[in-house]
Amino acid sequence: MNLNEESLQKIAELSRLKIDPKDIQAFLSDFNKVLNYVDTITELDVSSVSDEDLYTNEGNSVRADQVAEGLSRSQIESFAPSFQNGYFVVPKVIET
Amino acid sequence: MSDLWKLTYSQIKKGLNAGEFTPSELATSLISRIEAEDFKIKAFLSFEKENVLKAAAESTERRRSGKPLSEFDGIPIGIKDNICIEGTITSCASKILENYHSPFHATAIEKLLAKGFVLIPRANMDEFAMGSSTENSAYQITKNPFDTARIPGGSSGGSAAAVAASFVPVALGSDTGGSVRQPASLCGIYGLKPSYGTVSRYGLVAYASSLDQIGPLSKDIDGVVDVYSIISGKDPKDATSKNLTAFDPAKAKPVALEGLRIGKMKMSAEIDPDVAKAYESLLSDLESKGAKLVELDFSLLSNSIPIYYIIATAECSSNLSRFDGIRFGARKDPSGKLEDLYVASRSEGFGKEVQRRILLGTFSLSAGYYDAYYGRAQKARVLIKREYEGYFSKVDLILQPTSPTTAFKVGEKTSDPIQMYKADILTTSVNLAGVPAMSLPIGTDSKGLPIGLQVTAPLFHEEKIFGFAKTIQDWSSKVKLPEQIQ
């Protein structure tokens, strides 16, 4: 199958990505090449595999519910893009 | 002592333990080699010389006072830039993490430090481990030490080139679809993708969680065996880590070729003639020594790249959603609106190949396409697993070339993503099935470029791979690493 520009823009929006308008045709062409290549999977006969075959019987991996040391405030501050008074700073999210 | 850099992993281990040289002398020699040659190779993104010398001096002191942490104390190891080291930048060769200092060690790093290894970060890579040539790094293209006009393979190209150029005797990479084996093959060294779940992924920045494994690359087989033994074993911090003890290196004993059942593949037009010739020549030699060759039908596995790309990109679109400019990484805020901050940070922070894979993953997970793509790929993955189980009821090991070609030229495949993806055509099915596989050098082509052999074993049977590699070490020793880098 081939995706058109509108569909690609919709997927980019869902991915929180913006494709530069000058790159859009080249991006679309590459994306469709890849899509046509992986499209061969639609011809594979997978009827011998049931939905149950997709799950393992290994059970859950759990750890003891114990209090342990986490990252310190100064460690978080060292990698946070914007951090003040112990909080990550974000743009205003509530409209007034 | 100035040419200690020439030594293999085994010679280094032996020399350190015999007191023939100190960890500091060794580190100094390797640093000189890196300073003299890495401007041509660009294997390392940054090189913190003072930290390396400090760690080597501490190791020297431990050995001098008769209290080494282990027999490995003082051995230098290169680290790919997607494995977290506390206090060190872990950028995944991406602009979005250019200033990210990890606040913790990956489990594999903790285990290496506990044994006294001297860490040499940060080996270059394809951005977020997405690529087959190390041309997708946001910072620099790594070159192949055998011919600097060519790529070293990817995505662990920095780690592989660092070993092949004798900057380090051993290194860590990560393998999602062939990213340890393919560069190992193109650089004439050993590289292992362990069984899924045997090495903790804690602290390995995730690309595709159900496929990623950390794996060692080394100049010789003992380096792979030792490092795998150290980093393997159950880790409570990784829920996908299997309940297994660490690998016992004593199990890696040479195997008898007499009666060994070997699965082989029929050569196709996609395999370069020189690669096919080296492969066929090795097989006929093995047969003459008593091995039993069984031709396997790999037609299902030839579909593994589409299956791989759907599963890997779906997981990547999910894993990389955490990079939003809020808690870590680079932030771009063009308008003061939250949504614009996300979009700008991600669009400017991720390179084109990463964006392409995120988009493909978002597409295959989207309503309307999920069943046709992602759901179907998951079922096809079960078929691949069954296929391997069927093979291993007939053979002990599967031998294939690791890469269909030897190292290609820089820029040769960058304009065509499909051609680039096909570089991993023989390796991706191994990750889908979770089985272990290693690339080892078996010869060179007419241009003197290395050819690698991929040895695949049943799940959790790394010892079979190591044993076979030890048995045919003479073949691998034919490939000489370059002393002069052109």
From TrEMBL, chain A:
Belongs to the GatC family. Allows the formation of correctly charged Asn-tRNA(Asn) or Gln-tRNA(Gln) through the transamidation of misacylated Asp-tRNA(Asn) or Glu-tRNA(Gln) in organisms which lack either or both of asparaginyl-tRNA or glutaminyl-tRNA synthetases. The reaction takes place in the presence of glutamine and ATP through an activated phospho-Asp-tRNA(Asn) or phospho-Glu-tRNA(Gln). The gene is gatC. Its EC number is 6.3.5.-. Keywords: ATP-binding, Ligase, Nucleotide-binding, Protein biosynthesis, Transferase. It is an enzyme of class 6 (ligase). GO terms for biological process: glutaminyl-tRNAGln biosynthesis via transamidation; regulation of translational fidelity; translation. Heterotrimer of A, B and C subunits. InterPro entries: Asp/Glu-ADT_sf_sub_c (IPR036113), GatC (IPR003837). The lineage of its organism: Bacteria, Pseudomonadati, Spirochaetota, Spirochaetia, Leptospirales. It catalyses: L-glutamyl-tRNA(Gln) + L-glutamine + ATP + H2O = L-glutaminyl-tRNA(Gln) + L-glutamate + ADP + phosphate + H(+); L-aspartyl-tRNA(Asn) + L-glutamine + ATP + H2O = L-asparaginyl-tRNA(Asn) + L-glutamate + ADP + phosphate + 2 H(+). It comes from the Bacteria. One of its GO terms (molecular function) is glutaminyl-tRNA synthase (glutamine-hydrolyzing) activity. It holds the Pfam family GatC. PANTHER family: GLUTAMYL-TRNA(GLN) AMIDOTRANSFERASE SUBUNIT C, MITOCHONDRIAL. This is Aspartyl/glutamyl-tRNA(Asn/Gln) amidotransferase subunit C.
From TrEMBL, chain B:
SUPFAM superfamilies: Amidase signature (AS) enzymes. Residues 26-465 form the Amidase domain. GO terms for biological process: translation. The active site is at 80 (charge relay system), 155 (charge relay system), 179 (acyl-ester intermediate). Signal peptide: none annotated. Keywords: ATP-binding, Ligase, Nucleotide-binding, Protein biosynthesis, Transferase. It is an enzyme of class 6 (ligase). GO terms for cellular component: glutamyl-tRNA(Gln) amidotransferase complex. It catalyses: L-glutamyl-tRNA(Gln) + L-glutamine + ATP + H2O = L-glutaminyl-tRNA(Gln) + L-glutamate + ADP + phosphate + H(+). GO terms for molecular function: ATP binding; glutaminyl-tRNA synthase (glutamine-hydrolyzing) activity; transferase activity. NCBIfam families: gatA. Belongs to the amidase family. GatA subfamily. Heterotrimer of A, B and C subunits. Allows the formation of correctly charged Gln-tRNA(Gln) through the transamidation of misacylated Glu-tRNA(Gln) in organisms which lack glutaminyl-tRNA synthetase. The reaction takes place in the presence of glutamine and ATP through an activated gamma-phospho-Glu-tRNA(Gln). HAMAP family: GatA. This is Glutamyl-tRNA(Gln) amidotransferase subunit A.
